[in-house]
Amino acid sequence: MRSTDVKGNQSDKEDVTLNKQIKNRHDIRKLLDDTILQLERNTRFLETKQYLQHGKMSVYEHCIRVAEKSCDIAWKMRLDVDYTILIRGALLHDYFLYDWHKKDSSHRLHGFFYPGKAYENAKRDVALTEIEEDIIKHHMFPLTVIPPKSKEAWIVCIADKICASEETLKRK
């Protein structure tokens, strides 16, 4: 069985936590928790706790919610997806690492341009698969004019819009 480590490197060793067959929701939750822990230990993912995304929701919380929603969509629709890649891409989709609410000319038109910044940051910190790149670069479609190519990227694109809508409407 091929496995993928946090840097995106693949090997033929069997990895029981990252690339096992998903049999139930518990397996998905375990994979999600393991991936979060790996990103917290090996990247700047914890920095996303410093930045607000929608309402009072941090980027960190938002990305975890998007990963959970993405997995729910894939599971409920019985889609044949790579959950390891789906989860990593979802967790890194908003990895832009700045406060877009602060008045700064570099944050102008944030929604159109931050996927590129998130991609550059993620690429700097981990080796990304093509599908993870697709997820990060195209999750803001149609603001990013190029649509997602993979199933996983379409799922994250949809999950992100659901979560963002909920977070925006619930803010007080």
UniProtKB/TrEMBL annotation:
UniProt xrefs under InterPro entries: HD_domain
Residue span, HD domain: 59-165
One of the Pfam families matching this protein, by short name: HD
Protein name, as recorded: HD domain-containing protein
